[in-house]
Amino acid sequence: MESLALLCSFTTTTTTPFSLNPGISLHFRSKPISRSSPSSIFLPSSSFPALRSPLNSLLFSPLPKRRNPLLFLTRATSQNDKDPPPQTTSPPPPQGAKLLPFLISISIGLIVRFLIPIPVEVTLQAWQLFAIFLSTITGLVLSPLPVGAWAFLGLTTSIVTGTLPFTTAFGAFTNEVIWLIVISFFFARGFVKTGLGDRIATYFVKCLGKSTLGLSYGLTLSEALIAPAMPSTTARAGGVFVPIIKSLSLSAGSRPGDPSSRKLGSYLVQSQFQGILSHTGLEIDLGWVKAASTNSSALFLTASAQNLLCLKLAEELGIIILNPWVSWFNAASLPALVSLLLTPLILYKFYPPEIKDTPDAPAMAAKKLEQMGPVTKNEWIMVGTMLLAVTLWVCGDTLGIPSVVAAMIGLSMLLLLGVLDWDDCLSEKSAWDTLAWFAVLVGMASQLTNLGIVSWMSGCVAKSLQSLSLSWPVAFIVLQASYFLIHYLFASQTGHVGALYSAFLAMHLAAGVPGVLAAMALAYNTNLFGSITHYSSGQAAVYYGAGYMELPDVFKMGFVMAIVNAIVWGGVGTLWWKFLGIY
Predict the structure, then answer these.
(1) Nearest-CA neighbor of 1 among 430, 416, 413?
(2) Could you tell me which of 58, 160, 150 has the C-alpha nearest to residue 96?
(3) 388 CB contacts (<8 Å, ≥6 apart)?
(4) Are 274 and 544 within 8 A, CB to CB?
(5) What's the mean pLDDT in 247-258?
(6) What is the 3-state secondary structure (H, E, C) of 507-521?
(7) Measured over all CA atoms, what is the biggest interatomic distance in the chain, rounded to whole angstroms?
(8) What are 515-572's pLDDT values in tens digits?
């Protein structure tokens, strides 16, 4: 991948230095390669080199021929003797922690530990861990260091201060759910590397792409179909859909960072961005896309990293959801379907594209499919491996095979058959980074529960709600809204879950909310707030980085769709859950 990234950097500007002595340094630059007339439906996304398919490298223009270095060397030498050009050096990038965010993050923990009296119900160990946890969470929001580095500092502090023993502090690194999330990143890499994601999305563009609205539905449905085999929303966005949307938009004269972006690109990006996150059941468990069977819902439970984590944290508080795959599908299917139908239409009304018809899109898709040729052996292996993994996920309880073991079997097959090699896994930095900081957060949150901090907090909230004489349905609405709005302070859905899910679930239980309803609603809510800002999730940064959305539009449409989702999931969802007997 490093060589691929180097090749990508040369496709726009090629710089070749010649240095015969310290006083002579020449650089030859080629002309920028024009992208005004893309020859393919897909343009490689320059913002996300790690997510490119190898097929895309074939679309790069060849390197321009270098000019004779001796001719320019003679000119540069004579010119250098007369008037040496000034040498400018760029300042080195800042190193270490950012001072102000660091001081704020540390101060939060110190204030809680030493200035706020320890409650009678809480032990010194629990309060000290709570202070470290708050400093860690504050640092995740303010980013004095990269997420993984800051989490490691929090972990180290908990051990150095004697708050947690070493084995307990690192206990979450053996958590099955966390390793399932890590392996899902490797599945996503295989899905992009084989080009299967491009092929599936192109089929939907070919079938539904005659109008802008149909094109939006086609991209959304292809997202739903790809989701179970590509369990990273960020990878799907950067590796498949942003390149497709860019190519379609550029072919229609809609360019990023330009007034022409409103012709087509802005609507497609906004629709895909809001759609995949608003109708969370579509990504996670909308089984009718694949087959009219509730068992196929298991395909989509792993579509986002935080979903299984929510259920795992719920189990620690005593909320056991029997047959979670089917239960998840049953609860989400109807509100997810309603959101699926409404999202493109609402955006078409409030954020309309200037181009309503796209008659050339199906032809472009057909041409691209012809260029791709028949389905390759690696694509078939990827399909077969994912079908096996999904079958084991669905039947895991019966066969006694945990979900993480099913994922390990699938990854082992991809490695044995050559679809992935170990370098692919090692280069998936996001997977290992997630393992590091996610395990730290989950471990701390689990210990806070064991040491009684969560029950103490939930008891305080319960007393406040009782003093206001709120019934459990009203408390349910207040807590769900609070959980949603707090995400404006977070830049990660999984980080939000690790920090607050257990505490808010405990507050629901203390207020008398039925346990399964509270656990499932919070889990769905976690998916819904992934599109409210340009930093609310990994995929949010990807879509915003495409250059087709203005920042005010991101916040405005994020708020509009938040209201729509609150109505759909709060209205249709709660009635549906009542019908299913969840409460």
Answers:
(1) 430
(2) 150
(3) 409, 410, 413
(4) no
(5) 85
(6) HHHHCCCCHHHHHHH
(7) 88
(8) 999 999 998 888 888 888 877 877 787 788 888 988 889 889 989 998 998 899 989 9
Show Cβ contacts of residue 109 under 8 Å, excluding neighbours closer than 6 positions: 131, 132, 134, 135, 138
SS3 82: helix
In this predicted structure, the answer to whether residue 33 has a pLDDT above a threshold of 60 is no
Which residues are CB-neighbours of 71 under 8 A, at least 6 positions away?
Answer: none
Using an 8 Å Cβ cutoff, are 60 and 40 in contact?
no
User: In terms of Cα–Cα distance, which of 147, 551, 337 is closest to 540?
Assistant: 551
Tokens read off for 419 = 């679809």
Determine if the pTM surpasses 0.70.
no
b/e string for 334-366 if b means 16 or more Cβ within 10 A? bbbbbbbebbbebbbeebebbbeebeebbebbe
Residue 26 reports pLDDT greater than 60: no
Q: Determine the length of the chain.
A: 583
Supply 176's token pair.
């099955």
| DSSP structural state of residue 90 | P
Listed in sequence order, the residues at least 6 apart from 496 whose beta carbon sits closer than 8 Å to its beta carbon are: 306, 486, 487, 490, 526, 529
C-alpha to C-alpha distance for 262 and 578, rounded to whole angstroms: 42
Determine contact, residues 315/373, Cβ cutoff 8 Å.
no
Task: Output the 3-class SS for 245-263.
Answer: HHHHHHHCCCCCCCHHHHC
DSSP 18: E
Q: What is the pLDDT of residues 398-434, one digit of tens each?
A: 788 887 888 899 999 999 999 999 999 999 887 898 7
What would the two tokens of residue 314 be?
């719920």
Model confidence at 215: pLDDT above 80: yes
Mean pLDDT of 484-492: 80
CA–CA dist 212, 202 (Å, integer): 15
Cβ pair 154, 444 in contact under 8 A: yes
CA 93 to chain centre: 27
Task: Please answer whether residues 178 and 439 qualify as being in contact, where contact means their C-beta atoms are separated by less than 8 angstroms.
Answer: yes
User: Can you tell me the distance from the alpha carbon of 567 to that of 351, in angstroms, rounded to the nearest whole number?
Assistant: 19
pLDDT tens, residue by residue, 283-318: 433 333 332 222 223 234 544 657 777 888 888 888
- Record the tokens describing residue 357, joined without a space: 């018809």
CA distance 417 to 410: 11
Distance (Å, whole) CA 201 – CA 474: 42
258 Cβ neighbours under 8 A, 6+ residues apart: none
Q: Look at residues 77, 177, 240, 151 and name the one whose alpha carbon lies nearest to residue 437.
A: 151
Report the distance separating Cα 170 and Cα 183, nearest Å.
19
Query: Residues near 349 by Cβ (< 8 Å), separated by ≥ 6?
Result: none
